[in-house]
Q: What sequence folds into this?
């Protein structure tokens, strides 16, 4: 009876016809939203189960023509331009599967330059491959206003270099 009474009282209340006030985004909020969308799209385009083709055309659209992707390894830097990444990593992540998700992000913007620290967790090859680290992502705003990735340089986590506390899941973004 109490539930029925509550429903009847709620139904009898006048419905507001005044639309909610929607505050437009500031230029700074819009910039960060566009950067977030770009970085989220990068994680999405490389992630997927084994056997799933990746949309390399979409990935090329998100990066500058002269973009670079490098990993810091025990033997130095490993990587090259975007086509090199697609040719060397593409077949492996498509065949074995790889899902990379972001744990935390910090972004700084200065004019048309943006830098993001983006910690990640990657799982591939049916769960046999597990890794974490930090992507250092540089983006540049194009003449049309879109943000494109210029560089991703990543440092995998290891026993001597754990993720900082503020870059663990849920710490920043």
A:
């Amino acid at each position: 009876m109490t539930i029925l009474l509550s429903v009847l009282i709620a139904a009898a209340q006048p419905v507001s016809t005044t639309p909610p006030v929607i505050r437009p985004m500031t230029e700074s909020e819009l910039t960060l939203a566009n950067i977030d969308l770009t970085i989220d799209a990068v994680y999405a385009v490389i992630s997927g189960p084994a056997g799933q083709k990746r949309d390399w055309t979409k990935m090329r659209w998100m990066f500058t023509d002269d973009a670079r992707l490098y990993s810091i390894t025990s033997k130095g830097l490993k990587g090259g331009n975007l086509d090199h990444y697609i040719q060397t990593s593409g077949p492996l992540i498509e065949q074995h599967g790889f899902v990379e998700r972001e744990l935390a992000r910090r972004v700084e913007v200065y004019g048309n330059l943006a830098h993001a620290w983006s910690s990640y967790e990657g799982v591939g090859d049916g769960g046999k491959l597990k890794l974490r680290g930090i992507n250092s992502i540089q983006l540049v705003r194009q003449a049309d206003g879109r943000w494109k990735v210029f560089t991703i340089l990543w440092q995998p986590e290891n026993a001597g270099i754990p993720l900082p506390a503020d870059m663990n899941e849920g710490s920043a973004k």
